[in-house]
Amino acid sequence: MRGIITVARTQCISKESAYVRRLREGVEGPKGPQIPKGIQGIPEASAEMGALENNRELIPINIEFAMAIAVAESEAMDPQSLEEARRRKDWPRWEEAMRVKLNALKKAGTWGVVERPKGRNVVACKWVFRIKKDAAGQIEHYKARLVAKGFTQVFGVDYYKTFAPVAKLALIRTILAIAARNGWQIDMFDFHSALLNGKLNGDEEVFMEQPPGYEDSNRMKCCLKLYKSIYGLKQAGRKWYKIVCHTLADLGPKRSEADQAVFYVQVFT
User: What percent of the chain has pLDDT over 90?
Assistant: First the structure.
């Protein structure tokens, strides 16, 4: 029979500094600016930093430095809403990014402004903001994307099928292994705003609210009728896949039966 011996751990008690004790007793008030939320470890409250008790003039400098870092980090983060973006110092750059995106969507004929239909579902939308950086961490540009809130769509009303195949990882590894063995060159490229190229069918009428902050007409009377898919729609991926299939079929590549996300060309030498 085996026994288990448990040993209780002694509790570590840190001794508070004289400065913290005076604060609790109300003898002295806090010095320096307020510390931003999320920054922990005030030097005065740490027993290990008791040596700084005689260097009171250094404390405000350390706190201000921490505040500057916190502000810089918050500005480098992506805003989570339009209201947050408007409150930031870099709002003009976000506003320009939104204007560029709206002009591109209108130029592509993505929607048309129509009278709000009675008894029809109108999908909500929002802005998504991203700061694009290069490999060195420097800001390249500000990007704003208009995204439909797909969870407000109704099955059988403004969407039906949503499935779109994705290439299997095992097949990708097989292709890379074959290319490496034969010394073939691998090329990679990305489609710019791929999902925006999908076209909606005539039996799939999707109505969407006007972009927040950029209404062209009376919001209560008018909305947008989508002619092309946008990010966030449940059927956006499927519509893009159909465009790819039709385009590649005209160019010659055949679709693989084993993986419908793979297309190939037979070359005879």
Answer: 36
Q: Domain tally for the chain?
A: 2
Residue pair 187/74 in contact (Cβ under 8 Å)? The answer is no
On whether both 142 and 97 belong to a single domain, the answer is: yes
Q: Residue 111 pLDDT > 90, yes or no?
A: yes
Using the structure block, give the residue that is written with the tokens 């288990």. 4
Of the residues 33, 58, 76, the one at which a domain ends: 76
Distance CA 209, CA 212 (A): 8
pLDDT digits (tens, 9 = 90+) for 169-187: 888 899 899 999 999 999 8
Dihedral, 200, 206, 209, 215 alpha carbons, nearest 10: 50
- Distance from C-alpha of 156 to C-alpha of 149, rounded to nearest angstrom: 17
- 72 and 42 within one domain: yes
pLDDT averaged over every residue in the chain: 79
Rounded to an integer, what distance in angstroms lies between the CA atom of residue 53 and that of residue 19? 8
What is the residue range of 171's domain? Answer: 82-264
Residue 22, CA distances (Å) to 26, 41, 85 in order: 6, 18, 41
Structure tokens given for 201: 């069918």
Which of residues 240 and 60 earns the better pLDDT score? 240
